[in-house]
Amino acid sequence: MPGTCVIGLQWGDEAKGKIVDLLTQEHDVVVRYQGGANAGHTVVVGEEVYKLSLLPSGVLTPGVTCVIAGGVVLNPAKAIEELDELLSRKVEDSDNLKISDRVHVIFPWHFAEDRVMDKNTSDGENIGTTGRGIGPCYRDKVGRSYAIRLGDMYRDTFREQVQHNIKVKNSILSAMVPPGEFEPLDAQAVYEEYLAYAEKLRPFVADTTEYLLSAAEAGKRILFEGAQGALLDVDHGTYPFVTSSNSSGVGISSGSGVPARYINHMIGIVKAYTSRVGGGPFPTELDNEIGQRIRDQGNEYGTVTKRPRRCGWLDAVAVRYTTRLGGVDSICLMLLDVLSGFDELKICIAYELDGEQSKKFPSHVDDLRRVQPVYETLPGWHEDLTQATSRDDLPANALAYIQRVSELIGVPVAMVSVGPARSQTITLGSGQ
Length: 432
Ligand code: IMP
Fold this sequence. Notes:
Bound molecules: inosinic acid
Distance between the termini: 26 Å
Strand content: 15-25%
Oligomer: single chain
């Protein structure tokens, strides 16, 4: 049984890229199966820092095949930019990449629509999207009328598809955008731009469903790399303040084509506290100096959009929910070093709603907005953790914090991360 999946269990930015990078060395194939260039993965290899948003973090490990599977929405310019960057930095085997001919392609109208639609939620609060055209591209995919897949770009009908779509999209956008704020798109220019992308990407285009099925059947070790976090899952997250794909792990098979029977290990990535970018409820948010301290110590500013992230205490109600949803076996607790220096730490252990306490994660965003977190307080620690390399190097209060997180979430903490480098990782195994 060759499949392992890494998913974020909060609202994204849990530092999944680091764990994927570590695990890649034990795998033959690394697959991205949902989302697009809205993700931001920072991976530190030696002195080098790599920031990837579309290519799987596995491209940094020689000898591994990386796959962008059909469930991803592809910004071709971004894929080319990241490939060129790796090439210029001489990352070996960075061209060992397969991109599904089934991926849906993000076009300029999707960016324009993303900007407009985000201001028009029925809720009144903006989703605060990354502005990368993700939602509009997925909407067209499901709608089936104005969608273009990568494989379409190599067919004679591609020019006509672009012309047809632009005619419709120009009229929709000019009706939605205030006069003067929208420059109609030019079909010929878009066609030529995208044709050039298609040519550059041609060597990488493949039927990845077939490739992955054969790899799974041959017993190859496959690592699935989730993007965003489970609370942003379009079906099971904090809808409508979510992304437009299944980021909780339920989307692995639909996005990659690999049946669930080949996926036997689910690893959840959890930050030692919580962060969120964009709009939507966040029960443990600290809109105060403690939140600012966490933001500064954790450098909580977006990899993709550079936005300051909202920060707060760890929410064990939310993470227990996403752990169950993802069928997670063990978790990696990330950025524990960021919590050094606090006299006390809090973990949310229940929600209070209308005078009642519950450990259930609400299904409706209005209820999540109204819950009051019920906290347990734990003693903090003042030691710097960034040099710790084993359990014995961790202060007793940090170990107690890890132990309590594991109890509240219901699965073991297998690894703890105390810094961005590969070496700043402590393996605890299953028996902490
Ligand atoms: P979209 O994915 O750009 O449509 O954005 C929808 C919501 O998901 C917004 O709140 C974004 O901030 C959030 N989001 C999307 N991708 C990420 C990510 O990689 N990390 C954290 N938040 C994300």
